């Protein structure tokens, strides 16, 4: 079973750009990479999704290199409300069956 | 509000018992996913159903089972409960399949004593 690896935690000051990287080996050719945000006692919430190169929406950017074995979520000018756990999600083919693999999450703490 | 509902919000039971968690997906969504979140294991994918059929399976224990009904709601059955099954159980839904945005429900917090 392929693993995804993210830093366990990160600290950042308000107003700074934060980059969180997820490593994912054995990503399937057709799989997308999706990032979710989770606040305590709430379900995860979709942030951004991409397949390759760069994707940008109103809240974040996603950078994916050509080999697609990693992805970087970029949050511009973070605020205190961005304090949360961030997960990357990739599909994975293991033993012939399709599975979904979440990373263990990165706890981002934004400091005033 | 994601549009996904889960009941009950909290559940306290004893070891060896059986419980059923219920999930209603967003209107129009055909896929339902179940996840388990515990402190030491993070967010673990359990199983996915699409339009009533099992579509993908994660590390779901044999003591656990799920189904999706014709009205598309889903139930997760947990039996012979152990202390280690205490966790948050999330349901998510999407329009069709795996590559789409998943909308998560508020979760059911299960405590096994």
Portion in beta strands of chain B: over 45%
Counting helices, strands and paired strands, the structural category of chain A is mainly beta
Report, as a whole number of angstroms, the end-to-end distance of chain A: 40 Å
Greatest chain-chain interface? A-B, 24 and 25 residues
Assembly state of the chains shown: heterodimer
Q: What is the gyration radius of chain B calculated from CA atoms?
A: 13 Å
Largest sheet of chain B: 7 strands, mixed
Model description:
The complex is a heterodimer of chains A (112) and B (113). By secondary structure, chain A is mostly beta strands. Chain A has strands at residues 4-5, 9-13, 18-24, 33-38, 45-50, 53-56, 61-64, 70-75, 84-94, 97-102, 106-111. In chain B, strands 2, 4, 5, 6, 9, 10 and 11 form a 7-stranded mixed beta sheet that branches. In chain B, strands 1-3-8-7 form a 4-stranded antiparallel beta sheet, with no helix packed on it. In chain B, β4 (31-38) and β5 form a beta hairpin. The termini of chain B are far apart. The interface between A and B is medium-sized, with 24 and 25 residues.
